[in-house]
Amino acid sequence: MRDIHCHILPGVDDGARDMDMSLDMLEAAQQAGVTSIICTPHCREPYFDYDAMWDAYEDLVAHAGGFPLTMGFEVNWNKLMDLGFDEWAPYLGLQCESFAGPNKATFLLELSSSASSSQYGAYKQTIFELQGMGYDVIVAHPERYGAIQRHIDLAQGFKDMGCKLQASADFIAGGRLGNEKKPAKAMFKAGLYDYIASDAHKPEHYEMLAKACRKFMPGGGTEHL
Asked: Is the Cβ–Cβ distance between 2 and 36 less than 8 Å?
């Protein structure tokens, strides 16, 4: 089982604060049945130091005892616009084989939880451009976005474009903002999700991943990248 979204790198965002915590998270991941991890630190304010994140990744690899780790980013739409779309997008994909095949890369995109439905036209334009650059786009935790909570058809619109949707496992306990369980269940019922990821910021989030996979994914596991 590959975890495609987590904040396990030490000292670079609001996830693992140091290497000891990273290794505790790695142990918890293995206990939950995870066999490989894509490290996806935040690309948004107040975080994002590209070189420091790669250094942290290489440091974790050196301490991980051979556990399979690959590098990626959870890219916030606003930060991508600030950085410069054409300049930075090629550097911020997930460094792994794509869902869509070996000739495509994958891009994990975070939207704003407070954006109105009118903003979704701009989001779709960005997704269209990423797809044109060869990316297979995953929208992170749509259950967290207020507009989708009110209008599930916005999530269906992403699916109609060929996007994948990824649930963050803490929805099982209400979610990061406390109101994600109901919309997540509605999206599972509608068949909109492709993946559950830990979105782990601490070891306990892997217990939620195991529980969510048992309850909501066929066979009790997640799909693989």
From this structure: yes
